[in-house]
Specification:
This protein is about 45% helix and about 15% strand. It has one domain: 2-enoyl-CoA Hydratase, Chain A, domain 1 (Alpha-Beta Complex). The chain has about 300 residues and is α/β, with parallel strands linked by helices. It is globular. A seven-stranded mixed sheet has the order 1-2-3-4-6-8-11, with helices on both faces. It has a four-stranded mixed sheet with strand order 5-7-9-10.
């Protein structure tokens, strides 16, 4: 379980000059043009994100920050059925809690979420499959979200597993969908399909799966053709009107780290692990149903 030993292991200019595509261990950065970049999560079978993936993502965010020519970045997945399943709950707690702070001074998880929202480039998340936990939180940190009507599921399942979400959804969701719906999503802890996510305002649009990639690419290509300074200035003013203050982000991570160590969370996660958590199968595909089955 998280916090215990697990049986499962879990020069910038030169980089640009050598190849348009950078493949880290589990995240692929593709420069479709100098203005349009794509970040693809490729960590089969579930796209689990843990400390090593957080470090990889932090490096990519740093590369985007360092290049003022980038105008738009699309985040997507190469893993069928999963955008990102959730954070790695089988890695030792110290591997997560002991990570060095990022440039904002916060733990790397909230640090990445804050920096992602404040990039001068526009960020778009394309959701095909499950975006749960930190997958949902990364989507919420982006500027726009588009979902497959048939295949997308967005979920903040954590309360159902006995712990607090750590990537900032308590700061973002009330501003995005309203307080009541935020409480429904976070404390009701159910999965929402693409159509319902669109109705609630979580995603910009839910599109037929066959149209999702083409729509997102066309929008990103259009944005990439515009003046970069006009994009950055407009986004900055929108940020001032709509983003939560940075000070609201670190407390969520602290609450996550505290809550996953409680006996109630440890007991619930153990049951989920015994039933198949973090393995391909029904538990991951229907995680919210399994969290609801637990009896104290």
């Amino acid at each position: 379980m998280f916090g215990q030993n697990s049986k499962q292991s879990s020069d910038y200019s030169t980089l640009l000059a050598t190849t348009p595509t950078t493949k880290t261990a589990k995240i692929r950065l593709t420069r479709k043009s100098e203005a349009y970049w794509e970040v693809t999560f490729d960590n089969p079978p579930l796209n689990i994100v843990g400390p090593s993936e957080v470090r990889e993502l932090a490096k990519i965010v740093g590369q985007i920050e360092a290049d003022p020519r980038v105008k738009v970045v699309v985040f997507d997945s190469a893993v069928p059925d999963y955008f990102i399943a959730h954070y790695d709950l089988l890695s030792p707690l110290k591997d997560s809690s002991g990570m060095k702070p990022g440039p904002t001074g916060m733990h790397p998880v909230p640090d990445i979420m804050v920096r992602l929202s404040r990039l001068r480039a526009v960020t778009i998340v394309s959701i095909r499959g499950r975006a749960s936990g930190i997958g949902s939180e990364l989507a919420l940190a982006a500027d726009m979200r588009f979902a497959s009507r048939e295949k997308a599921v967005v979920s903040q399942f954590e309360v159902g597993a006995g712990f607090v979400p750590g990537g900032g959804p308590m700061a973002r969701l009330p501003r995005l969908v309203g307080r009541g719906r935020a409480i429904e999503m976070l404390i009701g802890a159910e999965g929402f399909d693409g159509e319902l996510a669109e109705r609630y305002g979580y995603v910009n649009r839910a599109l037929p799966d066959s149209e999702l990639d083409g729509f997102v690419d066309a929008l990103a290509t259009r944005i990439a053709s515009f003046d970069g300074q006009a994009i950055a200035d407009t986004k900055n003013l929108i940020n001032q009107a709509s983003l939560p203050p940075d000070s609201e982000m670190q407390p969520g991570w602290d609450a996550f780290i505290t809550s996953v160590q409680r006996p109630a969370a440890q007991a619930r996660v153990k049951v989920l692990v015994d039933e198949g958590l973090q393995q391909p199968g029904d538990v991951e595909k229907n995680l919210e149903q399994y969290t609801a089955k637990y009896q104290e």
